[in-house]
User: Which sequence fits this backbone?
């Protein structure tokens, strides 16, 4: 009987050891990315991204911009006010602000299609330039400093530019932003030449805003 008990004990011990070995083997099996552990949730590594960085959108060409302006000018029977500028140009920003003033914008857009082209940018902002704008600037009488402006008819032909005819230089000098009395005089002549039907009231609104600028 004693031998029987010893034999049973050995059988039970062997069974326990066999189960323990089986459990150890299970822990060492790949599941499915390494040893299995019930406390660890296996996760798949994210696949490498195939998305390319977004490219900086290229500015539209001067031909594209002008084509849209001519189409709109023809449809609305207006002239085009084209001005050239750059991000580093303080007087260009001053002109932009003037054209956006709530008392000027609706009056100006009653007679003209305002269009801006970017030229002569520094290396940091070269992407802002409109391709072909430099060539158009030269065609319209520039470069002669910025901002440079010109009024065109609905077909894109030059009506008048911002070179003052009575300037000392033979070919005239660019008035830039019309801030001085003589520059304002010429700018108003440009407006009346490009929009002969402009009312005296509307012309006076523009002229008064230039001669008596609001404090910054």
Assistant:
């Amino acid at each position: 009987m004693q031998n029987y008990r010893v034999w049973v004990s050995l059988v039970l011990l062997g069974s326990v050891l066999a189960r323990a070995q089986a459990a150890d083997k299970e822990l060492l099996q790949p599941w499915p990315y390494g040893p299995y552990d019930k406390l660890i949730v296996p996760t798949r590594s994210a696949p490498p991204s195939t998305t390319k960085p977004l490219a900086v959108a290229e500015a539209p060409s001067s031909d594209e911009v002008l084509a849209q302006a001519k189409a709109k000018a023809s449809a609305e029977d207006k002239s085009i006010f084209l001005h050239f500028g750059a991000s580093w140009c303080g007087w260009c920003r001053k002109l932009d602000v003037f054209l956006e003033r709530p008392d000027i914008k609706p009056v100006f857009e009653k007679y003209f299609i305002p269009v801006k082209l970017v030229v002569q940018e520094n290396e940091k902002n070269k992407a802002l330039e409109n391709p072909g704008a430099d060539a158009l600037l030269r065609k319209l009488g520039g470069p002669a400093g910025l901002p440079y402006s010109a009024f065109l008819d609905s077909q894109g032909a030059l009506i008048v530019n911002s070179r003052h005819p009575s300037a000392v230089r033979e070919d005239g000098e660019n008035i830039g932003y019309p801030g001085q009395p003589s520059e304002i005089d010429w700018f108003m002549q440009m407006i009346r030449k490009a929009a002969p039907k402009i009312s005296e009231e509307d012309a006076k609104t523009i002229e008064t805003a230039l001669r008596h600028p609001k404090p910054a």
